[in-house]
Write a structure and sequence with these properties.
single chain; mainly beta
């Protein structure tokens, strides 16, 4: 049976335990995270999306991931957070996409994730204040991420045209606030590495 057609467009912000800046974006999993292992959460604002005929537009969601060493070696642990306003069919569709079972951009997660922590629904907001992205997922994630300014003060530092699976262009950021209390984890990555990119995934 062929996989369903799906697409997600919007924005993604990510905060991790690396010092600024995370090497995984350029090393493509050939260089370990700065701390030797990766702990990260991501916030996603889906502006337009579908899974076959299921509308996924205007849904916020989050991810948490742990990677024990090199990204390319797998054995990842992952959990999914979905906005409580999402319906049953939308939740099932997003679960298939973010578990890798729907193929496409996220298909590699089916290979790399060894332990799936499941799905939790809660109130999720993704706001923009100036250049800062503010992401909240109930009492589970509280984050504020700001791009690193470039020498031209009207621009930000951007890594362009990479082969990073999340997006080819990544804006280098730092977490102003980054607290996670979810799935038995308690993290604080304030002052650590962060990323911002346009979300354009499909399958």
């Amino acid at each position: 049976m062929s996989n369903p057609s799906w697409s997600l467009k919007g924005e993604l912000v990510l905060s991790c335990n690396c010092t600024v800046f995370c090497p995984c974006v350029l090393s493509l999993g050939l260089h370990p995270p700065t701390e030797g292992y990766c702990q990260t959460w991501a916030g996603i604002r889906i502006e337009e999306g579908h899974f076959d005929d299921i509308d996924l537009s205007d849904i916020n969601m989050g991810l948490i991931m742990e990677i024990p060493g090199l990204m390319s070696r797998g054995n990842w642990t992952a959990g999914v957070l979905i906005d409580e306003k999402a319906g049953v069919y939308q939740t099932k569709a997003l679960t298939k996409i973010f578990s890798g079972r729907a193929g496409g951009t996220t298909g590699l997660l089916k290979i790399l994730v060894g332990r799936f922590l499941g799905v939790h629904q809660t109130d999720i907001t993704y706001d923009i204040d100036g250049t800062t992205r503010i992401f909240r997922a109930g009492k589970m994630i509280e984050g504020a991420v700001t791009p690193v300014p470039a020498s031209d003060k009207d621009e930000h530092v951007v890594i362009r045209n990479s082969q990073y699976w999340i997006a080819p262009d990544i804006t280098v950021c730092k977490s102003d606030k980054s607290k996670l209390r979810a799935f038995g984890r308690n993290w604080n990555f304030a002052g650590r590495s962060a990323e911002l990119c346009t979300l354009d995934w499909a399958g």
